[in-house]
Write a structure and sequence with these properties.
The protein is an all-alpha fold. The protein is about 55% helix and about 0% strand.
Amino acid sequence: IGFRWAKRRGQVRWDEKYEELLQYKAKFGNCHVPTKFKENTALGRWVSTQRAEYKKDCEGKKSSMTAEKIRRLDSIGFAWDGVNVNGA
C-alpha cells in the first residue's frame, strides 16, 4: 500500500544537527563546538543540550538522551564534558 513510517520530527532534527557536527569536525578536526559558535549558534546550543541531556541520563533523570545517540556521538569523539571549549 506504499505506507512509509515517518521519523519523529525530533529525531529528524537531531540527525540534522548531528550531520552539522560531522561537518564541524571535518573542518576543525574535533567536536569541541563552543556554545556561542559564531558560524552556527544553533549548533553550539545543540551541543550544549546534548551534554546536559547526557548528564541527566547519567544521573538517572528524565532525558531525551538514548543509548543510540550516545553511541553515535562517542563514535565521532564527542566532548561530553566540554573541556577546553571556548568561544572560538
